[in-house]
Design goal:
It contains 15 helices and no strands. It is mainly alpha-helical and about 260 residues long. It has one domain: Orthogonal Bundle (ADP-ribosylglycohydrolase fold). Helix 1 runs antiparallel to helix 13, helix 2 crosses helix 15 and helix 12 packs antiparallel against helix 13. The chain is globular and about 45 Å long. About 55% of the residues are buried.
C-alpha cells in the first residue's frame, strides 16, 4: 500500500531543505518525516475503524518532534477536533491508503474528503486529497496513464497536460495543494517506473519529501513494483510500531510491491 508513499518521503526528505533541479542523482533512503507518520495514521484509521482525526492526532503526538506545519502542530494538541481551513498539501500526502483500501470511486472520493476535512477543510485541501486518492485508485485498477490524466484533470480542473521539463525551470517551493499536487501527479505521468517518478518529483526543486510521497504512492499503485533494495531500507528505517500497521494494512488489502 502506502510503502510507495513512505519510500518517496524518505528518499525526498534530504532535498526539502536543499532543493535540486535535476534527476541526475542516486536514490538514497533517509529518515522519515511527518508525511510517513500521518500516512500510516490514515491507514490505521481505515484498518481499525478509528475516526480519522483521532488516529492522526494519536500518531502525531507519538512522534511530536517531526517537522509538522505550525497550524497542524497547534491542531494536533487540541482536545477538540476543529479543522483550520488549510489548503496545504498535508491532506494529499497522507491520503494514499484511501486509494488502496476502497473498491469504488465513490468510496475513495468520500474517504479522501473525510481524511482531509478533519484539518484541511478548505476546498483546495479536499480537492488535493481527492485527486491523489483517485489517481491511486485508477492506477491500481489498471487504467492507463491517459485515462488517469484525463479523469483527474477533468474532475478537479488541474492542468496535467504539462511535462516535468516544462515545469522545472520556473517552479519554486510551494506547500499548497493547488501548487504541488498537480505537479506531483505529472511527476508520475512523465515517468516510466517508480524510481523515475520519485526523481521527477524531487527534481522540481519544491517540497521534495511531500511531492515524492504523493507521486510515489501513485507510482506504486501503477507499477506494482519497487526495487527490493528500497523496500528493505524503508523497512529498516521504520520503528516497529509504524511497520506493524503498514504490514497489517498490506495484508488486509492485498497491496503489491
Amino acid at each position: 500500500m502506502m510503502i510507495g508513499a513512505v519510500a518517496g518521503d524518505m528518499i525526498g526528505s534530504p532535498y526539502e531543505a536543499h532543493p535540486i533541479k535535476t534527476t541526475d542523482f542516486s536514490i538514497r533512503v533517509a529518515g522519515f518525516t511527518d508525511d510517513t507518520v500521518l500516512t500510516i495514521a490514515v491507514a490505521n484509521s481505515i484498518l481499525n475503524g478509528i475516526d480519522y482525526a483521532v488516529s492522526i492526532k494519536t500518531f502525531a503526538q507519538k512522534y511530536p518532534h517531526l517537522p509538522y506545519g505550525g497550524s497542524f502542530r497547534h491542531w494536533m494538541w487540541e482536545s477538540v477536533n476543529q479543522p483550520y481551513n488549510s489548503y496545504g498539501n498535508g491532506s494529499a500526502m497522507r491520503v494514499s491508503p484511501v486509494g488502496f483500501a476502497f473498491e469504488s470511486m465513490e468510496e475513495v472520493l468520500f474517504h479522501a474528503r473525510q481524511s482531509a476535512a478533519v484539518s484541511h477543510n478548505h476546498p483546495e485541501g479536499i480537492k488535493g486529497a481527492q485527486a491523489t486518492a483517485l489517481a491511486i485508485f485508477l492506477a491500481r485498477r489498471g487504467e492507463d496513464k491517459e485515462v488517469i490524466r484525463s479523469q483527474v484533470a477533468e474532475r478537479f480542473s488541474y492542468d496535467l497536460f504539462r511535462t516535468v521539463d516544462d515545469i522545472r525551470p520556473g517552479y519554486s517551493f510551494d506547500v499548497s495543494c493547488q501548487g504541488s499536487v498537480p505537479e506531483s501527479i505529472i511527476a508520475f505521468l512523465d515517468a516510466n517506473d517508480y524510481e523515475t517518478t520519485v526523481k521527477n518529483a524531487i527534481s522540481l526543486g519544491g517540497d521534495a519529501d511531500t511531492m515524492a510521497c504523493i507521486a510515489g504512492g501513485i507510482a506504486q499503485a501503477y507499477y506494482k513494483n519497487i526495487h527490493e533494495g528500497i523496500v528493505l531500507q524503508v523497512r529498516e528505517n521504520l520503528p516497529p510500531h509504524l511497520l506493524s500497521v503498514m504490514d497489517q494494512f498490506n495484508q488486509k488489502y492485498n497491496c503489491e510491491y
